[in-house]
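Researcher: Please translate sequence to structure tokens.
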Amino acid sequence: MAAYLQSKGALVTVTDSSQDARLHDHAQKFDTSAVRLVTGGDHPQLVKEADLFFTSPGVSESNPVYRAARARGLPVHSMTTLFFDLCPGKIVGVTGSSGKTTTSGLIFQILSESGKDAVIGGNIGDPMLDLLPSIGSATLVVLELSSFQLLLLRRSPHVAVVTNITPNHLDRHGTLDAYTAAKRHVVEHQNSEDYAVLNSDDPRVRSFSKHTSASVAWFGTRATNGAALRHNTVVFSEGRQETPVIPAPDIPLLGKHNVENVMAAVTCCRILDVATAAMAEGIRSYRPAPHRLQIVGDHN
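Model: Translation complete:
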């Protein structure tokens, strides 16, 4: 973030309560006349010198510097909000309490296998701002988005995918309702040309359909407008017509929850005009992120 802002001619002050020496080592990469590093404790007085305030997703709204920026009336941004403002491509945003890394990876794999111009970032892959030079108007940008990244969001993705909502990060959000509200930002700013891909089996996710202007498509065990599971096969259902995509035993991922992730990816990629055969090939060739239900050995 600091490097990007510096490259655009901004004078940047970076502050961190830690005094970790690695921060200062990293800061040596910057032009010290343009980037200043202040560490050790919180320094709310710094906002008096600022025109804009950027915060890391991990910084709570209760942080003294954050509170001082709000009190001064500074615009509060993040890398995510800046990327949404600058990105020339169509964003596919994936969120949920679990499954978002796998679902994001599946969507990217399917898009890539089908020959689409696609990149992946957010909580997975490269930092968002580093992707900008490789993104054109036809690029599909797959982003894994956490509740912290969504909190400040003022724009929603062209396609928003929500895997599920279960209690998570309540130490930060306080209540499940507040956590759900943060997740809901992924659809709240959509328009009639956008799409929301929602889990029909999850009551909290189903409720998101009432908070978006987008077209809604579903995935779930009994979905009738999207990907569903029929006779142990993932199909795409449109009214009474069902198109088989892939038998569940062919999915190279362990666990029933990963069938849900595949269904979410299938619904999303159908919206993005990916052929059924390319979806099946992308799913078969996908390899999960490390440490995700990996087989480490066979022992008799």
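Researcher: Any highlights?
Model: The chain has two domains: 2-79, 89-285.
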